[in-house]
Specification:
The structure is a homodimer of 146-residue chains. The first copy, chain A, is of the alpha/beta class and 146 residues long. Chain A is built from 3 helices and 7 strands. In chain A, a hairpin with a 5-residue loop joins strand 5 and strand 6.
Chain lengths: 146, 146
Amino acid sequence: MAVPARFNFVTLGAGDVSALRGFYERLGWQAAKASVDGEVAFFWLNGLVLSLYDRASLYREIGVEGDATPRARETNIAINVETPEEVATVLAEAEAAGGSILAPARTMHWGGVSGYFADPEGHAWEVAHNPFMPLDADGRLLPLDV
Amino acid sequence: MAVPARFNFVTLGAGDVSALRGFYERLGWQAAKASVDGEVAFFWLNGLVLSLYDRASLYREIGVEGDATPRARETNIAINVETPEEVATVLAEAEAAGGSILAPARTMHWGGVSGYFADPEGHAWEVAHNPFMPLDADGRLLPLDV
């Protein structure tokens, strides 16, 4: 299989998730119920999710904690896949194309499977299976509960 | 009006656009005909566009050239709007919500209108009207010619 040509998540690293969430709410955007105060905020945006996530946690999950040049990873983009098994398969495809694995496929505390690769200039991509956020037939995330 | 709750573009700053384009093509993704060798590459991904763009040009357009802490701007995300006039309106809405204007609405060499704001943690968002990339009724970019 090839790497699905799509976006499902864009995550912004945040120093203060609550304050940053307030800004996006003032734009008129509505945070989903799945958001957790002070930890993470989700906004469903027309088929994909904007996520605001604690920067230190994000770097820890990506595996770049302490990286001296994190600029290319500050905004994290993700491809969601339909099955847990596909995560490792897609990571392998990305590596075969010249990417590097930042974090292998592993089961996450939130109940899904996730891994990270970097493109040759260091931009991080997450590949994830999230059983709680189903995709429609076009590979877009269904609206979140708000 | 409020700020449209959507994504239309995600742009990755690239040191070598051609080399980075090669990586994404090896994933099985097809660059659009509007791509310009060595300058910019566009991939239509399920309703939005992944753009690879010369990093120095990107920083110049955002107005952060020489910025010592560009990490939050390395990946640039954009909201496309239906009319040229809306660009300034949406930027003003973002400023009123606590964002800061990085670059005002101006006519660009590529024939559209564009401006940038930053959220309170410095993540850059472009607001753009692109007469050559129409949106569908759901606010998603129509497929590009490949």
